[in-house]
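Worked problem 6 (solution included).
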Amino acid sequence: MKDAMTTSQSVPPAERPADGVPAISVDGLALRAGKRTIFEDVTFDVPAGSLAVLTGPSGTGKSALALAVAGRLTPTAGRVSVLGLALPRYAGAVRRRVGVTGNATVTPLDGTLPVKHHVAEALKLAGPWWKPSASPGRVDRTITAANDLLGALEGVVGDGGTATSLVRARLHRSELVRDAAPGARFALGLVLALASDPDILVVDDVDQLRTVHERRAAWAALLTLGRTRDDARPLTVVATCQDRQELDDVLDAGHRLAALPLRPVTVHALIPSSEPTPAPEIR
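Solution. The predicted structure is:
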């Protein structure tokens, strides 16, 4: 089915779901590629403003499911509604209201560019074609925002004199993206995904951060992130991972993060498929 960007169908206005209505509602969702099943019979709701964690072993379709609710993949069965918009009918409208990071196919970081040039290109792509959106000032503010995020995490996940590559990392404007610390690249991806002020943020594969401290800081960021603008609309976060241990660590009542206001968490475990699956088409 054609999406809303390529048809003359009217698109509902960009309003927040009514109180009590889930930001995301999935019912019996399935995705197949040829004879292979990527995931099937998936049902869950995601309350607005919460963190939904899609977890399971490799090959269970976590990334595909996250991209399906982001309007990037078309499911083959079931029903899904995002921000009150039915997919795939309004996939184009959903894509404009969902930010994605962590997936190299959808939102790759160009390691060959200096940080400031990559940020400028990403801001141009995120903004409307008719409005300049990558002025030097905005590029600088975006890089500063990523560094500020890293600094803010230092007080909640730093453990004394132990240096962690996420909280001690900083982006340098002239360095190549590939030379930035993994934590700094993660923070940059978050900030760029939020540049268009989406209602939903999808963060794929938190496990790509290799150390325990990095992953704890990543979950701390996802639990505390707010909107980029002063807006009453809640920010809903969807994240994928194989192992949620570090999320459980920071949610422990004895962790210093517990003193902060955190978004509610729901966890949705996917069951492994019996056969390997090919990669589906991503939009």
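Discussion: Strands lie at 24-33, 36-46, 51-55, 77-82, 85-87, 98-101, 200-203, 236-241, 265-269.
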